[in-house]
């Protein structure tokens, strides 16, 4: 979507922060535009193995607008949802 390609290719969302560290990517608790947002399982409605998406906007109240698939839409449908930085939320980029 924005030119970021994860070198680890596969894995559950709750493993992406560890994989990012392993590959020398940046990991932060602060949002960055077009970074990958990682929600750990159970955080802000993320189910099972967590969820990942792309930061499309950062709102003035601190909310992060994430585009993702399989987050409330139908199969193959991109949705946009708001999340907030906090415990269990990380941002990664290469």
Description:
With 94 residues, the protein is mostly beta strands. The chain has a single domain (13-93), classed as endopeptidase domain like (from Nostoc punctiforme) (endopeptidase fold (from Nostoc punctiforme)), CATH 3.90.1720.10. 7% of the residues lie in helices and 34% in strands. The chain contains one helix and six strands. A six-stranded antiparallel sheet has the order 1-6-2-3-4-5, covered by helices on one side. Strand 4 (64-69) and strand 5 (78-83) form a beta hairpin. The protein is globular and about 30 Å long. The two termini are 14 Å apart. The mean pLDDT is 91.
The CATH top-level class label: Alpha Beta
Q: Tell me the name of the CATH homologous superfamily.
A: endopeptidase domain like (from Nostoc punctiforme)
Mean pLDDT: 91
The name CATH uses for the topology is: endopeptidase fold (from Nostoc punctiforme)
Pfam families: CHAP
Domain Peptidase C51: 1-93
Organism: Ktedonobacter robiniae
Protein name: Peptidase C51 domain-containing protein
Descriptors:
Peptidase C51 domain-containing protein; about 90 residues; 6-stranded antiparallel sheet; 1 helix; Papain-like_cys_pep_sf; endopeptidase fold (from Nostoc punctiforme); CHAP_dom
């Amino acid at each position: 979507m924005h030119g970021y390609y994860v070198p680890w290719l596969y894995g559950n969302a709750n493993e992406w922060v560890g994989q990012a560290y392993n590959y020398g990517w940046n990991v932060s608790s602060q949002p960055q535009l077009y970074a990958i947002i990682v929600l750990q399982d159970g955080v802000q409605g993320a189910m099972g193995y967590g969820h990942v998406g792309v930061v499309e906007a950062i709102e003035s109240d601190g909310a992060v607008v994430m585009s993702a698939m399989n987050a409330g839409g139908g199969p193959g449908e991109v949705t946009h949802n708001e999340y907030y930085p906090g415990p269990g939320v990380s941002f990664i980029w290469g």
